[in-house]
Amino acid sequence: MKEIKETQHLLPKMEPKPLEVETHEAHFSSNNGKNLQEKTWEESKKMWEIAAPAILTAVAQFSIGFVTVAFVGHLGEVELAAVSIVQNVLEGFVYGVMLGMGSALETLCGQAVGAGQYEMLGIYMQRSCIITLVTTLFLTPLYIFASPILKLLHQSKNISELRRELFAYALNFPLQKFLQAQSKIWVMTIISLVVLAFHVLLNWILVTKLGKGLLGAAIAENISWWLVVLAQIVYVVSGFFPESWTGFSLSAFKSLAGFVKLSLASAIMLCLELWYFTVVILMVGLLKNPEVAVDAVSICMNLEIWTLMIALGFNAAISVRVSNELGANHPKTAKFSVVVAVRQSRLGYFLAATIFLNSIQPVLHGVAVGAGWQFSVALINIGCYYVFGLPLGALLGYKFNLGVQGIWSGMLAGCLLQTIVLMMSVFRANWTKEALLAEGACEYICYLSFTQK
Fold first, then answer.
1. What's CA 255's distance to the chain center, in Å?
2. Is-contact 240 253, C-beta < 8 A?
3. Which of 24, 42, 77, 110 is the most buried (most CB within 10 A)?
C-alpha cells in the first residue's frame, strides 16, 4: 500500500504546467540585449560546471590506458604492438558498447531530474547495470577466445588472457551517468585522478621494479579500473543521495524492454562512430608498405583523442542540460543550451578540420542523447560514415592512388556530412514537442510501475 501511494504521488508531478512554462519562456525570450547576455553567461556557467570536471574525468580515465602503453613501451616493440592492438581493437570495441549502453541512462535520468522525479534515478541506474552486465555475458567470449584470435596478429598470450576490466566497464558507465545527471561530477573526477596516480605507481612497481612485464601491466590496469568502480559505488550508497538512492529495488527488473531498446540504440549510435575510425586503420593497413602509414595514422588518432576529451566534456554537459530542461518542460531553454554549447565548443579548435568537426560532434550527440534520438542518429551514422565516407575514402585511397591522404579525406567528408545533417536536425527540431514527448515517457513509466505493483 505504501508503494502504491508513493507511485500515485509521482503522477501529479508529471502533469503539464502550461502557465509555468509560458512565464518561464516569456522571460527567457526577452529581446533585451543585456538580458540575453546575462542568460548566455548563466548558461555558460552551468555548462562549464558540468563540462570542466567531465573533461578531467575523461582525461584521467583515458590516461589509465595511456600509462599502461607508456610502461609497456619500455619492454620492447613487440610488447608495445601487442598492447596497442588489444586496446584499439578488443578494448575499444567493448568500451564503445558499454559506454553506448550506459548512455541511455543520460536520457532517462536527465529528464527525470528535470521533472523532479529523483525517486526514479536509482531504479534507472539499477536497470542499466542489469542490462550492461547481461551484455558483458554476451561479450565474454571475445575475451575467452581472444588468445587464438589475437595469436594470428602475433598478440601476446598474457595480455589476451588477462584483460578483465569488462565487468568494470559494465558498472562504471551507469554509475557515471547517475552522478552526471545530478551534476555530481567532481567527486568522480577526484576518484579518477587519485586512481590514475596510483596506477602510475602500480605500473612502476609491477612492470619496472618487479619485472612482471605484460602480466604486471594487465594486472595494474584491472586493479585500477576496479578501484574507480568500487569508489563510485561507495559514494553512491553512502547516503549522499537520499532522494535518488533508496536502496536496491525489485522494480529495477520491471519494464526492461523499453530500457533495452534505448540502450541498444545508444550503443549502436556510439559504436558506429568509434568503429568508423577503427575501419580507417584497417584500410590503411591494406596499403603497400603499411607499417609507416599505420604508425602515422595511429599517432594522429591518439592526438585527436586527447583533444576529443574536451569535446566529450561538452557532450556530458549538453546532454545533462538538454535532458534536464526537456524534463522540466522548458523547450526554449533546451534550444538555447544547444546554441551556447555549440558556440563554446568551437573555441580553440582551428588547428585542423578533423579536430574542429570532432569538437562539434560530441555536443550534437549529447543533444541526441538528452532528447532520446539515438536510433535516428544511428541511421544517420550508417548513411554518412559507412555508405558515404568509407566508400569515398576507398575510392580516393585505392582507385586514385592517394593513399593515406585519400582515405583520411573520405573520413573527413563523412564526418562533415554527419555534422551538417545533425546540425540541421537539431536546429529544425520542435523543442516544445520534444518536451511533451519526454513528459509523456515519464508518465508512461510511472503508469507501468503503478500497474505492476
1. 23
2. no
3. 110
Task: State which residues of the chain have pLDDT below 70.
Answer: 1-34, 76-92, 143, 146-165, 278, 281-282, 284-308, 311, 343-345, 347-359, 404, 439-453
How is residue 348 written as a grid cell? Answer: 580553440
Tens digit of each residue's pLDDT (9 = 90 or more) over 201-229: 999 999 888 888 878 888 898 899 999 99
On whether the CB atoms of residues 112 and 372 are closer than 8 A, the answer is no
Residue 295 C-alpha from the chain's centroid: 26
Tell me which residue has cell 551538417.
Answer: 420
Write out the three cell numbers for 176: 557515471
Query: Rg (Cα) of the chain, in Å, rounded?
Result: 23
Task: Give 344-376 pLDDT, tens digit per residue.
Answer: 657 444 345 666 666 677 777 777 777 778 888
User: Alpha-carbon distance 104 to 107, whole Å?
Assistant: 6
**Which alpha helices (H) appear in 15-118, and where do they start and end?**
18-28, 33-73, 77-85, 92-114
DSSP state at residue 255: S
Q: Which residues of 219-231 are buried (b: 16+ CB within 10 A; e: fewer)?
A: bbbbbbbbbbbeb
Q: Cβ atoms within 10 A of the Cβ of 255, count?
A: 17
Q: Where are the alpha helices (DSSP H) in 401-430?
A: 403-427
